[in-house]
Amino acid sequence: RDVGDAKMAAGSGSPAARELFAEGLLQFLRPAVQQLDRHVHVVRESQVELREHIDSLATELCRINEDQKVALDLDPYVKKLLNARRRVVLVNNILQNAQERLRRLNHSVAKETVRRKAMLEAAGGYPQGLPGK
């Protein structure tokens, strides 16, 4: 509702209305960015755990292959595991980059919010109906 009110007010073109809209938009985006950042962090942790399990399984397969009296060709399976590990590492790097961009975006949103609040306070306070104080 606040964002809708701010959007309607922004249509009037006044600086206070634009500030109200910007503040509403920042308030709307911040929780989504923070939630996305938390989810990316959880996925990255699971990717690291998966990579560790793949490493352990590959080591175990190599050990089994060495201990077998009957020659089993486990090399293709080990190669598949190593390929899966490589993909997990690649995905983890992509997630790490995305999380860093989210962190920077979240920082920018917070910085912009502080800047706008300071600007509004210097101009004589918040416009009527602006959340935040």
Task: Describe the structure concisely for a colleague.
This protein has 133 residues and is mainly α. It is built from three helices and no strands. Helices cover 83% and strands 0% of the residues.
Describe the protein's architecture and organization.
One of its GO terms (molecular function) is SNARE binding. Residues 81-115 form a coiled coil. With 133 residues, this protein is mainly alpha-helical. The chain is 83% helix and 0% strand.
Q: Uncertain segments of ≥5 residues (pLDDT<50)? A: none
Seen as an oligomer or otherwise, the chain set is single chain
Largest sheet: none
Count the helices. How many?
3
Give the class from helix and strand content and strand pairing.
Answer: mainly alpha
Q: How far is it from the N-terminal to the C-terminal residue, by CA?
A: 18 Å
The overall pLDDT average reads: 79
Number of strands: 0
Give the overall shape: rod-shaped
| N-to-C series of helices and strands | HHH
Number of domains: 2
- Determine Rg (CA atoms, Å): 26 Å
β-sheet strand percentage: under 5%
Give the % helix.
over 70%
